[in-house]
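We emphasize that the prediction below concerns an isolated chain of 469 residues; any contacts that depend on oligomerization or on bound cofactors are therefore not represented. The input was used exactly as deposited, without trimming of termini.
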Amino acid sequence: MFLPNTCRSVDERRRVMRGVRHIFFLGVGGVQMWALAMLTRARGFSVAGFDRQESERTARLCAAGIPVIIGAGEEALHALQAADALVYTLAISPEDPLYRAAARRGIPLFSRADLLGFLMADASTRICVAGCHGKSTVTAMLGELLAERSATVLCGAEMPHCGSSLAVGGGEIFVAEACEYRDSFLCLAPTLGVVLNVGHDHADYFPDLAAVKGSFARFAGQSERVLVNADDAAAMEATADARGRRVTFGLSSTAMLRAENIVFSGGMGRFSLAFEEKQVVDVKLQIPGRHNVYNALAAAGAALLCGLSPEEIGAGLGRFRGAARRFEYKGRLCGARVFDDYAHHPDEITATLRTAREMVPAGGRLFAAFQPHTYTRTAALWQELCAALRRADRVLVADIYAAREAPLPGIDSQRLAAAVGTHATYHATLPALAAQLEAELSPKDLLLVMGAGDIDGIFREFSKKDFTL
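Result of the prediction step, given as a token string:
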């Protein structure tokens, strides 16, 4: 059973928020929730929150003067009594005692996306970056490009230009990563909706690709203009009814905004940005992979529509060094280069491994340490996950990160490793996985650590003598 996305209208949000002064965040340690709490406080509200465990983000909230209660108990229930409204993540159970206590009190309950819609509403330019893959990178790119325009940016990853997943700017431009899960992005009202790609994901909510396309069609329908990947058939189908308000980007000749004369050197792409048959600026990326050419095109398109000059766009994309956990270089383990990536969907894994393969020197091997994310996704995309992971020379699989879910019979990492092939092994703990990597890696190898859960904790398990920054 799920908690709903509340998705009030703009007028209803304003009416409900009129008497609200103190807001309590349930699950405040999440990457977007903590940023939303910080932004809410910056807008003049009193803020407090709860999370089950301490983290770097809860520590940053406390350092900023926002009280955070860790762990269940009377203290959290007592703190909730002062709240005029509660904001929750969709990972929260309807049986959560704090949620139930707030509901009994009758105070307004906001899903994360509903509050985001309220905070965005007064911006004259509202850019919402949607898609099954690439949202955080494109949002972070726009943060870089629009920094001098004093844009407020809320991203699902730490952005290099500000060292945070939140940049608080003026009130004119607001850029937000817009998630499709449980139709969250339908709580937003973009002046520009960006659709990077559309694929089947979140199988616990969307039964098939048609359902995902339907959700994106509604998102496009409520966007004043739509920027769409012309090379993604499902994205074009989903936005067909917005054809008159649609600007397209891609590599194909049908795209209005294109990358031409693409050359890769050391994995990094260089290309000429062309808009409506005219080359406008040369771009040299500092992040690897063909998929990042698409991401750069999306960011460039949004920036052009915001009035940035081609020269500003070319310079900004050239400065961008990548969002956190998006093919992020972490150091060397036993001499092998190590990268950390959020990839957890087969399409993301394929793109990331393809990029990494081009960076492996002769005689080296490509290692993938992978943590599946949720049982429903693993079950629904089993064959696709296996096919994607087979691109690596060596695969080490950690236990499934359950997130909000209960286990499913027959769906586990041991079986997944066996299905991938003889070059894949299962490891029950991160220390065991780290030890195996240290036993096998050599200097010419490249290691990718992939997953959307807590597999990045493996970096704390590596031996200090073997792991160097």
